[in-house]
Every structure is written in structure tokens, then in C-alpha cells.
Design a protein that fits this description.
binds 2,5-anhydro-1,6-di-O-phosphono-D-mannitol; Fructose-1,6-Bisphosphatase, Chain A, domain 1; single chain; alpha+beta; 30% helix; 24% strand; eight-stranded mixed sheet; five-stranded mixed sheet; 7 helices; D-Maltodextrin-Binding Protein, domain 2; 17 strands; binds magnesium ion
Length: 333
């Protein structure tokens, strides 16, 4: 059997399963091409002077890396001209990016974090791109940030790329989760894992322990029980991993299970959390649920949140179902 390329997979989803439209197929092809370009830019590293600070801040007051800016531009340019989008929004831009008048407009909205985990770029650790696709509501008077404020249940597609030892693209259209690997010689993505499933139980957790003293009591209790291992109430030892690139942590969980937490803490109470709902929490929550896992803020299912702002932040607890449900139960108690 010849390898199934991303193009072939998408054509067959459109033709046989009618899961996607021609425009959505085109959109994903374009995003995958942009991810390839970002992967190449990252791979050049110190040779091409792409590392280090850009000397600017994004709208969230975070210092931008050169590769944050480059990745954002690659995604904008790739997606402007195709006629498949009504608008785009990004972690790196305060307002939505409207499609220039010289190009036709389409029915979809694309939201992305162009380079997730960018604090890891300069130290040669995996980073990635996260994206979410929504439909632009019909008959809206203007395409502005309000058209994006739809709950995660409305996503028609979610995905992320990991730029690690291999470049991976993980995708869902609401019908399971597939993983593609970039074949660097041929320059295309090839289907390498079908229907990824997250085990319901796990012995691995991911959290930034340096924030421990700021967490709320339910998270304190949960992590304390994990750390107590065999001698504690859980009766087994747990291992810990924290890459500090959500894309890499979530990919590990898709591969062998685990629970990922970026809970609300006392330092960021007024911000609502660390991770952004529209282009981090929602796409990851859709992927994790499609793989049989769960995603919650501790108090509610992430995909049910009605967004109030484009750059809204939320607490994120996702991964193996039984663990996420336990953390939610501790919040309820
Ligand atoms: P970014 O989008 O600015 O890179 O921030 C998101 C990243 C996640 O990938 C990761 O889980 C988290 O921030 C790590 O945060 P910390 O450095 O506080 O551990
Ligand atoms: Mg991010």
C-alpha cells in the first residue's frame, strides 16, 4: 500500500464520507503548507538569524520572538488569497485580520497560535502551531471580533503541528483524530496514526510545579495525592513531565495518556488563567475529546464556554478521562 498523503486523506474524507467541504479541504491544505514553511524556518535556527527577540510585544504584553512574528506572517499570507476565509485571528494580533478587498471571501474563520511554546525556541525544544476553524455566521453586518465568539462545540476542524524531532500534524474534523508526519524528502504529510485514543487511566501528569503555592485547594489536593504515590490514597506511583510547550505535552498524552493542567492560580486570577480559549484551549479540547479524553476548566467543560473576548484566558485541565473527571469532582466538592 502506498502511503496515504494528507491530500489523499482529505479528498477521501470529502468524497466518500462527506465529512468536509471542498473549501475546508483547501483550507487545511493551505494551513499544512504554512506549517511546512514554519517548520523549515525553525529548522534553520542560528544559520538564518531567526532566533531571539523581535523587539516588540504582542497585545497580551508578552515579548515576541522573531519566529512568533515570522510564523504569524506565514499563516496570514498563505491564507489570504484562497477565497476560503472570511477572516483570521491570532495570538499575535489584537484585532482580527480581514481578507483584503482584492480577494474573494469564504465562509470560514481561522484562529491560531502561530508558534506555541515559543519560550522553548532558543533552547531547541519542540514548539508548534495550534489552529481552530469556525463558520462565519451568516448575515452579520460586519466581520469583527464578535463573529469569532462561538463556543468550542462549533469548531468544524481543529489541529496542531509539532515541530520536534519529526514535524507532525494532528487533525480532527469531529470524526476521530489522525496524525500525519512530514516526509521531508517528498515534502508532504503522510498519515502515520489513525484514530488516536487516549487511555482513560494514567500514571503521568503535567503541571508547572513552580506555581504550586498559588493553586486553588482542589488542584493542591489532587497533585498532593499524586505525589503521595503508592503510600497515598491513589495507591500507585505517578511520573511527571512538563515540556512547557502545550503541543508537545498534548501529543504525549494522545500517544500514551496523561493529564495536563494549567489551572487558575492566585497570580493570574484577574486574567482568568494562562492559556487562551479560542486558539489554545478550544482546539486542544476538541482533539482530546475526539480521542476519548476530557477537557475541563475544573468547573465546566471547555467546549461549552461561551467566549466573551477573542483573547480570553481559561484554566485548562485535559487528558485521560478518569483523571480529568476526578479533578472536576474535587472542584465540585
Ligand atoms: P505561548 O503561546 O506564549 O508559547 O504560551 C503557552 C505555553 C504553553 O505551550 C505551555 O503549556 C505554557 O505556555 C507553559 O507555561 P510556563 O512557562 O508558565 O510553564
Ligand atoms: Mg500558545
Amino acid at each position: 500500500m502506498p502511503p496515504v498523503t494528507l491530500s489523499r486523506f482529505l479528498i477521501e474524507e470529502e468524497r466518500n464520507k462527506k465529512v468536509i467541504s471542498a473549501d475546508l479541504r483547501f483550507l487545511v491544505e493551505i494551513v499544512s503548507r504554512a506549517c511546512k514553511a514554519i517548520s523549515i524556518a525553525i529548522g534553520k535556527g542560528g544559520i538564518a538569524d531567526v532566533l531571539g527577540q523581535a523587539g516588540s510585544d504582542n497585545i497580551q504584553g508578552e515579548a515576541q520572538k522573531k519566529l512568533d512574528v515570522i510564523s504569524n506572517e506565514i499563516l496570514l499570507e498563505a491564507n489570504e488569497w484562497g477565497g476560503h476565509l472570511a477572516a483570521m485571528a491570532s495570538e499575535e494580533m489584537e484585532d482580527p485580520h480581514l481578507i483584503p478587498h482584492r480577494y474573494p471571501k469564504g465562509e470560514y474563520l481561522l484562529v491560531f497560535d502561530p508558534l506555541d511554546g515559543s519560550s522553548n525556541i532558543d533552547v531547541n525544544i519542540s514548539v508548534g502551531t495550534i489552529f481552530s476553524v469556525l463558520r462565519c455566521p451568516e448575515g452579520v453586518p460586519a466581520v469583527d471580533d464578535k463573529v469569532f465568539l462561538q463556543p468550542g462545540t462549533q469548531q468544524v476542524c481543529a489541529g496542531f503541528a509539532v515541530y520536534g524531532p519529526t514535524t507532525l500534524l494532528v487533525l480532527t474534523f469531529g470524526d476521530g483524530v489522525q496524525c500525519f508526519t512530514l516526509d521531508r524528502e517528498f515534502g508532504h504529510f503522510v498519515l502515520t496514526q489513525e484514530n488516536m485514543r487516549i487511555p482513560e487511566d494514567t500514571k503521568e501528569f503535567a503541571i508547572n510545579m513552580s506555581n504550586q503555592r498559588f493553586w486553588e485547594p482542589p488542584v493542591q489536593r489532587y497533585v498532593e495525592e499524586l505525589l503521595a504515590g503508592k503510600d497515598g490514597p491513589r495507591g500507585k506511583d505517578f511520573n511527571m513531565r512538563w515540556v512547557a510547550s502545550m503541543v508537545a505535552d498534548v501529543f504525549r498524552i494522545l500517544t500514551r495518556g496523561g493529564v495536563f493542567m494549567y489551572p487558575i492560580d492566585a497570580k493570574m486570577k484577574d486574567k482568568g488563567g494562562k492559556l487562551r480559549l479560542m486558539y489554545e484551549a478550544n482546539p486542544m479540547a476538541m482533539i482530546v475529546e475526539q480521542a476519548g479524553g476530557a477537557a475541563s476548566t475544573g468547573r465546566e467543560r471547555i467546549l461549552d464556554i461561551r467566549p466573551s473576548a477573542l483573547h480570553q484566558r481559561v484554566p485548562v485541565i485535559l487528558g485521560s478521562k478518569n483523571e480529568v473527571e476526578r479533578v472536576a469532582r474535587y472542584h465540585a466538592e
